[in-house]
Amino acid sequence: xxxxxxxxxxxxxxxxxxxxxxxxxxxxxxxxxxxxxxxxxxxxxxxxxxxxxxxxxxxxxxxxxxxxxxxxxxxxxxxxxxxxxxxxxxxxxxxxxxxxxxxxxxxxxxxxxxxxxxxxxxxxxxxxxxxxxxxxxxxxxxxxxxxxxxxxxxxxxxxxxxxxxxxxxxxxxxxxxxxxxxxxxxxxxxxxxxxxxxxxxxxxxxxxxxxxxxxxxxxxxxxxxxxxxxxxxxxxxxxxxxxxxxxxxxxxxxxxxxxxxxxxxxxxxxxxxxxxxxxxxxxxxxxxxxxxxxxxxxxxxxxxxxxxxxxxxxxxxxxxxxxxxxxxxxxxxxxxxxxxxxxxxxxxxxxxxxxxxxxxxxxxxxxxxxxxxxxxxxxxxxxxxxxxxxxxxxxxxxxxxxxxxxxxxxxxxxxxxxxxxxxxxxxxxxxxxxxxxxxxxxxxxxxxxxxxxxxxxxxxxxxxxxxxxxxxxxxxxxxxxxxxxxxxxxxxxxxxxxxxxxxxxxxxxxxxxxxxxxxxxxxxxxxxxxxxxxxxxxxxxxxxxxxxxxxxxxxxxxxxxxxxxxxxxxxxxxxxxxxxxxxxxxxxxxxxxxxxxxxxxxxxxxxxxxxxxxxxxxxxxxxxxxxxxxxxxxxxxxxxxxxxxxxxxxxxxxxxxxxxxxxxxxxxxxxxxxxxxxxxxxxxxxxxxxxxxxxxxxxxxxxxxxxxxxxxxxxxxxxxxxxxxxxxxxxxxxxxxxxxxxxxxxxxxxxxxxxxxxxxxxxxxxxxxxxxxxxxxxxxxxxxxxxxxxxxxxxxxxxxxxxxxxxxxxxxxxxxxxxxxxxxxxxxxxxxxxxxxxxxxxxxxxxxxxxxxxxxxxxxxxxxxxxxxxxxxxxxxxxxxxxxxxxxxxxxxxxxxxxxxxxxxxxxxxxxxxxxxxxxxxxxxxxxxxxxxxxxxxxxxxxxxxxxxxxxxxxxxxxxxxxxxxxxxxxxxxxxxxxxxxxxxxxxxxxxxxxxxxxxxxxxxxxxxxxxxxxxxxxxxxxxxxxxxxxxxxxxx
Length: 1037
Ligand SMILES: Cc1ncc(C[n+]2csc(CCOP(=O)(O)OP(=O)(O)O)c2C)c(N)n1
Ligand SMILES: [Mg+2]
Description:
The chain is of the alpha/beta class. Helices cover 36% and strands 13% of the residues.
């Protein structure tokens, strides 16, 4: 079987036998010669493919010659056609072909045997006798060029990637017909064994020659084999950019590139020792604990460390990592360098947690560490972002955090901050958020300037085989959509892995684009340490049990070649084992577990040293009138000269100017004022989501477009004050999961930014449900990490159908953690305490001023909580939905409840009904009350902050109207909206002495009807009930 790939392709009956150890490089001379002419099947395979523009410059001197639409990938027939056409009439072909053939004829050495015409030549072509030796020379050169290209494109299909040798990494044992895996394949190119020793000019699209410009065919094939078909499989030829392809070719093809100094080899061995012995140590001490060990992919530790070393060498100072369960503890210990005792004490079930919150399992926690990189001697900050079990959910979060860190450092090119994402093979292929995250990678407001992706491709997902887990050949194919090169590598060849990782880091630094390293490995144990893999993968695991661990293989190699001695190797192991033992000893002294030691994004200076808020008050959120006026003026102007805006927009700006003069704001202007005033105070504001720049409802217009100059835009918000903080407003890709995750990560980086994500319509947030359920609602409880992200969710029943109506308030409220049954103590700081204790804030503002205040409060609070805002649609233009400056000037604040202030409030004892409501339905209720003339009998009070529930204010309101029936009115169906949330809380306040009656739509399956008439009928029905003062007579509760 020493014939390597050739043997594999044709003769090997049992793939397990040949796959490992390293295959010797294909030796052409040992192959049987099968002199076959190009048969019909092979001719069929000559159908043109891989059509691409490429250039071929004469290696020695000649000018660049461009071949229009030439088939670079393996068809000589097109070139033959060109050639024969040129022979007949040089003017009949493009001048680039003319000059090429002319040059080739001039350079053709004499004395070559007269070639026979290939069998694929159509009959209409010139007879064999008319063909010259130049013709054969050209054809053979073109054939060799095609052959080189075939290896570059398809060599990875036969690369020896699987350490077990039982699976094909591309899920297919098919051997591409244009690779010379057996000698008869030469016929595919109309070449014969006799051609093997002929010299061929090398095109500039290969570097296999090193300083040689020509090589024998035998050597060409040997070098291609060794580059493309050994332990590294390269997928890059789909990349559209020729320069990038050249770069990769150079990195891998150049002879002798994979040389390691003995120091590098020893370092690699030491890292493998740590990786392997760490898992061994855990296995010994806690044999029945789940840890999702890295055994079978121990090389991941040196792989990640190489990426970090290399990046640090190129100037990176901050690396943000995201990764799943597999090997996470090992990464914490040996890459991030978390104190081992901190890790070990996580295994002690008796330790008491010192922090508030519910905590998380050890393989989900995050970490942040600043240290010196020992290889480069430079400072480096490493953070591993905490994540839920939900695989790949952390990807966009890491990217958002990375983007923010780059932004705050002014690192627009990503030269200082970068991200690394580690993935499992099954999850990378299966989870859609991976695709969504890739699609953010090159968008100006979302790019992190390249991410290095590392796949732990253990060729299994829990109990599922790859063939059942994906339809793509490789788990990595999703990366092709963004033209990211993919480097597959056999994880049992540590030097190949290290080389690939260092090229990946260089790629990222050179092109600022994503790159994927696919570590093809195996999983030595079950999915976790308690799992029996033989139930489902018996044969695979039989092979795995026979598999010699990579550390042993590599140590044997280095000992054999004299790089280390056995004694040194054993000492290295003993040294690390001692480190672990000592840390274990220390971990036993720990009595308390601090989850805050596992914080991935500390906010220096924001909290006290103990991690507490610096105060428990919130300053008032109003601002001086001159600031309001100034923002209003800028919002209604075009700050750039000679900038022509649309006439419709001029009208909108004039409207803003009028409102400013009249000292009023609508929704959009209130938002402008909130953002603008925060920018003035040095708070960066970022608003992201689909079509947010204009606003889905065409109300925002934060980006003005010059009507005469393409792509000339202006963001007046960035022209407010000379020293203001920057404002970013960005239309996102059409993704919720990816983009919301991204913004959450962005908000993680600093407390001094207002980061908002707006759903196009509120109901679309459910495609980002994982981010909401796993990160936003409980991130602080699990990971003691605050986050002030704001979700803007357009919501309201307006007859638009079952979609586009409900932002599903019930879901957010159901996940709110304030206790419905606990009657709170109304201390002086109740309002702010309640906010501090809650997991998130849910509001539905009915006035622009209140929206303004709640946005500002978000930043002025001494801590951070996610804020969910149900935002209006029709209210954006409702004439009544306006606020006076009086409600926004200094001294004013957010109103958690807006009490009735009309006629009924002036004589509350006479009021028969007090309606509580939230949001837009207020305006319907007021209109109906007025049309029925019930202003004195019915009071309407608005709940603006729904959660945490303003027990104190609601109590005051209820007490103010002692004789009134209490009603909760909502436009949503009864099983949706707010009713289930507010009802028990009202009961708690009222001591169950008074009922709170429900008025609203009946329970339903869909959030809204698709029939406009049905919508109006149900609206009328519940409005009638709201003002029917006899509606609840005689009813008990
Ligand atoms: C979104 C999601 N779905 C399902 C699971 C359950 N689950 C945990 S690990 C796993 C298999 C993961 O396989 P792979 O990505 O190949 O990683 P490996 O465990 O092999 O390293 C599954 C299905 C999960 N954690 N997240
Ligand atoms: Mg896997």
